[in-house]
Prior knowledge:
This protein has 47 helices and 19 strands. Residues 963-1021 form the HAT C-terminal dimerisation domain.
Amino acid sequence: MEKRKQITNLLGYFKKLKPTPELPELSESKVVDYVSDCNVESTTNNPDNVKSKVNDPDSVESTSNNLINVPDINPMDIGLLIHQAVKEFYTMARFLVEASNKELTDHLQNAPRNASYISADVQNEIIDVCFDIKTKQVINRVNGTRCFTILADETTDIAGIEQFFLCARYLDTTKMITRGDFLKFVLVSNITGKGLATTLLTTLEEIGINVKYLGGQGYDGAASMSGQFNGSIRNCNGTIQKACIFFKYPQKNNVLSESIVRCNGIFRDASSGAYQLLCAIRQPEFILATFILGPGPNCLSLYHLINNDIDNITLWILNDITIDYICLHGYDQNFENNNFQKSKKLYVRIVKGVKKPYYRYLSPNVLHVKLLNEEVIKRKYLMYSDSTGNLFCVLCLLFKGKSSFATKGFCNWRKTEEKIIFHENSKNHKSCVLSLKQRMQSVERIDQQIIHQMESEEKYWKNVLYRVIAVLKSLCSRGLSLRGSNDYFGSTHSGNFIMCLELIAEFDPFLAKHIKEYVNKGKGSTSYLSITIFEEFIILMANKVRHQIIEEIKTAKYFSIIIDSTPDISHVDQLSFVFRYILNSGNPVERFLQFLPNIGHKAEDLANSVFHILTTNSIDIKNCRGQGYDNASNMSGKYTGLQARIKNACSYAVYVPCSAHSLNLIGECAASCCLTANNFFNLIQNIFTFFSASTNRWQVLSECLTGNISIKRLSDTRWSARHDACSSLSKNWSQVLKALNEIEKNPLEKPQTRCEARGLLVQLRSLEMSIMVTVWSDVLERFNYTSKKLQEVSIDLRTVLKLYYSLIHYINDIRNNYDLYEKKSIEISEIKEYKTQINRKKKRKIPYDESHENESQLNSKDVFKSQTYIPIMDSLISELNKRKIAYEDINEKFKFLFCITEISSSEVRHQSAVLQKYYSKDLPVSFSNECIHFQSYLLTLPKDNASKTILGMLQKIIKSDLQDVFPYISIALRMFLCCPASNCSAERTFSALKRIKTYLRSSTKDDHLNDLAILNIESELTVNINYDDIINKFSELKARRKIIPIVIDFSSSFQAEPLAANITFEVLGASRVKDFSDSSLSILRNNELTTKV
């Protein structure tokens, strides 16, 4: 059962990885039953077999590392799921691990190597089973309609194989909709009309579709398909008798009506009457109080309290529920915006012996009391009753006080202040205050409850955003697209972002419930899963990564710039900015910062853009110690180029030409130094073009080749492609000749094709070409491995110089071993004579006063060697010697550090003084003494622990915490290591640009492109982004509550009424004011006000 559950989970992955309209309808039990019966499942039932498989490195499961191209990594290890080189299947599995899928996590950690169910074999089997089940569903529907139309077309796939596409169009009688379902891709060898018709009908019969129900055909305008005499249409019509079938489907007159009753909440209670009451109530305050206090028989009194008139104190039903509700929610004193008309009381006064009636009202001033020190305190216990016009003490009323303030209410306005002061100081009132305090501590105050509610809401939405950010980090770090054709959950065209959330939701009940309740509700519904939200998070994450890179540059202080440009898919020239610097750990890194569009190719424009980027990010150009560009004149020009303009701003910014690009130029120069070398590379490209131009020719070549080796095409920029092309031709020399010979002798081929094949055969059947293939295969192989080493970020300029010297010695050795390569070429081609020996020799026409007596004629071997072989080798050596000069100049300044333990102390002093003089602003005069001390320290280390490289020395200082002892040695090493050896990091950003800005996303805006690019290119930083930092920043930007200080000058006339109509003012240190009367202004004078918008 455990294995069936694992296969069921794996099927869930494929539903998202391979989205089709039919796949969600698959029965998982069928797939699980099928896979459980496969050999993969049966091999796990034998414990001995499992043990042998684990220990056998040649087992099928152990080769699953080839899926991800990561050597020596166990695919069952969870660590693989976060590796940068994994495929999308492992990326989806990583989502589930991050979503706390304990079952999958335990399986990946504990499963044996041959029972992981994530290997290529199991994946392919499940794909095949899903395809079979889906195809059977389509076939059953097609056969059930008894009439269908076939749609077909043919194309050539990436491997050069002709593929025939079949699609069935029919009416689905169950859903009353027209469907067009894909059936199959079929390999086609005969593309004539008869051949296509035979393939079509045979395939339909094989998969189980009754061809007699075929009622129509749909093709493009190709003659082989649409031809009315020999086309596929004619051949199909000749085989199948047409029949017109008409169907009448009864209309669905029944209408399903459904009423949905939405309730705010249901609270069960032992009392049925209270239960019905709770189900009917809509007030959220009542639900909150009921949830906290718990419903009971007294719920009716609380309902009466809330829904009748909570502000009317005379209607309160005094019990524990009421007291607890008042303690939690508080009450309104009914003093604000009240004219106290109901408090009108008739009094009589004697004026000159005559009794005259008059009226008194409750004064709002009784709400506040002024102390002797002029402080104003609010009487919070008073409450005015609008129904009776009396004044009550809420505390005494709740806790059964005995004064008139607690029983019938106070209304003697003639002695208001006197009676209130007497009541405040009474023992009964003070005891009621203490009772309220104790009661409030037991049930908490309303503000505490709000805090709990806010914390609960905050925790909920944080859990949602955690999953959103996890998906964005995974997709953006791999450069995958986020959006699809639509943005609806449940759609198979909604894009990777929604697809990943749906995948997590299958194993995460929390996210599944959130999606069910909040998504696809339209505008006005908050789900935090919309396009706007994830684009805002992309901006925040990109700014976070960008800020971290800038801070690292500033911390490292010394840096170098690497710049290059390329056009994108929308023909916009993108300038890439990359910075190289040293981390605190001592490791050099090259970080991408951004693309700049349409800067121009002039040196002045490029320099202005560099200065603009540095100034915008507050990076000091004076700390630049290197520049890395290709060999273009607008960048490398020593007088007006970009490097000259940067040097004018910082003289220490040395220019380092790209060593990998220079190596390509060396090979290109040698390949064009003589006619034979040019013809050789043209021949390789012509051979690839000839076979790839036709699927039939490619099939002939494939049948002649052995293994998975195939011929390759050339590349103008990547010389590794030239090595692949030469190597494949060298290994398949006889097979290529055989394929060309078959095509040349095939009478069914066109005369032009046979002529081209004959021309290629003539060029290949020569000893000269065989020697060129052998020599260039060896040379380009060494160039290829050297170029890959030069492209590493950790390489330093000393290693670059050593590699160039090694190539010079290697080419010299090849130059002196011509006979060896001639012998190898004869063995490969089985040709022993040069082409000039076979052809008739040309005689030089001499003047009348000369003769042929003293002329020395070279044989064919010497001619080829002197005119082709030697010039190629000399050109390579000459170019290598010329290109290495740029690296020698830089290494010369730091040369003593490379061999500081091998030279004398006087030599160290002399060369360190030269370096100090050049970097006088970075290194002090005492630098020589520190170098002598550093030399002594290295000599004390054991030989096996001594560092022999510049990088090793710096890391040794940092690891041993010796920066305080050798501070300027550390500075010198950092300045040397931050100089770039190549600009390959900028080239790599172009590869990321092509993945991000595709033809489907060609209208991406520049800012959005930069955000996606930095998250993908700097994926190492992206995956380490802290979730809480991004969420907190997001909440700060989304907060709508702002505090705006407003200072009012009371010395001038102040019109308070218009402001009070729209803004609620709060006095700092005083009470809230809405009625700006003269008495209120006396309180506000000389105070600051704040308004909450």
